[in-house]
Structures are given as C-alpha cells and as structure tokens.
Input
Amino acid sequence: QLDPLPPVTPEFLSVLNKVCEQCYSDFAPDELEVGVREHILQDLEIFVRRQFPGAQLQLFGSSKNGFGFRQSDLDICMVLEGQETIDDINCINIIESLARSLKKHPGLRNILPITTAKVPIVKFYHVRTGLEGDISLYNTLALHNTHLLATYAAIDRRVKILCYVMKVFAKMCDIGDASRGSLSSYAYTLMVLFFLQQRDPPVIPVLQEIHDGKKPEVLVDGWNVYFFDDFKALPSHWPHYGKNTETVGELWLGLLRFYTEDFDFREHVVCIRQHARLTTFNKQWTSKYIVIEDPFDLNHNLGAGLSRKMTNFIMKAFINGRRVFGTPIRYFPPVYPSQMEYF
Ligand code: GTP
Ligand code: MG
Output
C-alpha cells in the first residue's frame, strides 16, 4: 500500500516547479537543432529520388510533435508521388532496395532494413550529427498522430514541459524503451495528455470531440483522424479554456498521484479521444493491466507488449516517483545519470 505523503508547502511546490522548468530547458532542442533535422531530411530526399523519382520524405514523431530531445531519433515517412497506398510485399521490396541504395550514401552508416516488424523500416546512423533515424513507408496514421500531439503541445506551455518531464522520468527509471519490453515515448505522452484532460478543471480539451454539429469524418486507413486543429480558435470553442491555473510542479506531482492513487488500471483505459471513461471491458482488453488506446487506430493498445513483470516494474517506478517528488527535500538543480547524454 502507498505511504501517506506529508503536506506540500508552497516553498516545496516552487522547488518542484523549478525542477520541471529546468528539465525542459536542459533537454529541449533549440531552433538550430530543429533546422539540422530539416536539412538532413532534404539531403536524404534528394539522394533517395535518384532511385525513386517520386519519393517524398516527411519527418514525424518527436522531431515534429513538440516533445523532441536533442538526441531523439529521426522518424521519417516516405511516400511515392501519385501512389495512394502500398501492399505488404511491395513495402518489403522497397524497404530492401532503399537499404541497398542508402548504403552508398557517404554520410550514413549502419544501414539496417527491418522487414519483420509491424511497420517495416530501414534504420540508419547519420555520422555528422550522431543521430539515429529510420524510414518507414506510408506511415500515414503516424503523421496524423504527430500533428495531434503537436496541436496539444501548442495549446499550453505546461503540456510541453510535462511531456518532457515524463519522458526524462521514463528514461531515468529505465521504463521508456518499447524495443526492450517497456513503453514507448509516444505511450507516455498519451498518458500525460489523458491526465491533463481528466484534471479538474482540465488543462487541455479532447480535440477529437470538438466540432460544430456532427463530428466530421476524415478516414485514413479506415480510421477517423478528425480533430479540432485550430488551436488559436480554441478559446471560443472550449468553455474550460484558461480555467486551470496550476503550476507545472503541481501538475507533475498531480500526475504521479493520479496514476498511483486514483486511476484504476484494471478497469479503465488511458484514452485521449473521448472525455468519458472507457473501460477495459468495453474494449475486451481485460487481460492487460496497463491499457493505452491509440487515439486513431482504436485496435492498437500501446500496452499490449508489456509482460506482467514489466508492468509491475513500471508501476513501482510511478510509486517511487510519487514518494520522491511528493516528499519535501532540497533537490535542485536536478542531477541526471550520465547515460542521459545519449538520448
Ligand atoms: P522519441 O523518444 O523522442 O524518439 O519520441 P517519439 O515520439 O519520436 O517516439 P518514437 O520514435 O518511438 O515513435 C515515433 C512516432 O511513431 C510516434 O511519435 C508516433 O507518432 C508513431 N507511433 C504510432 N504508433 C506507435 C507505437 O505503437 N509505438 C511507437 N513507438 N510509435 C508509434
Ligand atoms: Mg522518435
């Protein structure tokens, strides 16, 4: 059972707030670094077009969603002009030939096609910047969820800071690497957004539920990717706009308490597309403990790959986090472990 937390003083909250703000400024990339990513993208597009003349490359993921780190990977999606979709066989063929061609690129190393994954990719290492990256094909839903996350990030500065703090927390606790059996950054970002939607008063709206009249239908791969993306017009479309005035520090501790004290993982789904609570029973996802629904691909549970052991490990990290961040001591400035340089 959880230890009771001592009362939080205003002084302590102000320290906590500074830690969160500092974490953001320590890890957010500057404009120069953002420009470097666009530059690599353009260079790659020119190179790839020598073999695939209609190729169009686009960045997605944290290079574009507002929650990127200096060392975040480059997530690139490639499509071919004039071609709407691609079948599995063709996709694998193109990935393999793309890999052969990228091996000739003087600025890249460690070219590795991965064709067995759900989303086939070519991985690469960009020598000059030390950035890792991957290219996937027709990853259209990912482009849309990137835009959704970017819109949430643009609504309120606190969204951005909290998502950074969450990602740093996940990396420090070693619970933020889906390829090693835990959850992806994307999954933790969804957890932060869900918390901010459920807070009273809410910090952010449910963008997929804001519309005039009937909800518009914008279908991509069979899923409705509609959401209200005109964040500048939000004040007149969302009655709670500006009502929540908590500091980032309060919200961070609030988040840790929410997921350890209030939210019932056994019963509910972390779901950012609707405000009403969705149950694991509704989704028939009762065999898993941490259930995170993708906002567009409603069959995708981001927690599906978690073992029982990993689930416990993640929950323990949250419980420890609640105790550490909820107990007034002096721990400013924050100290990160040395491996933090690498992400
Ligand atoms: P970083 O850790 O900074 O790279 O964050 P990221 O958001 O770029 O995460 P990652 O590189 O793992 O994923 C890239 C993007 O793929 C995400 O931002 C989503 O847009 C998209 N995506 C869609 N579904 C999934 C999923 O199940 N897992 C992951 N990891 N990404 C998904
Ligand atoms: Mg990424």
Observations:
- The pocket of guanosine-5'-triphosphate (ligand 1) is lined by residues 60-62, 65, 68-69, 72-73, 75, 142, 145-146, 178, 184-186, 302 (CB under 6 Å).
- The chain is about 40% helix and 10% strand.
- The mean pLDDT is 94.
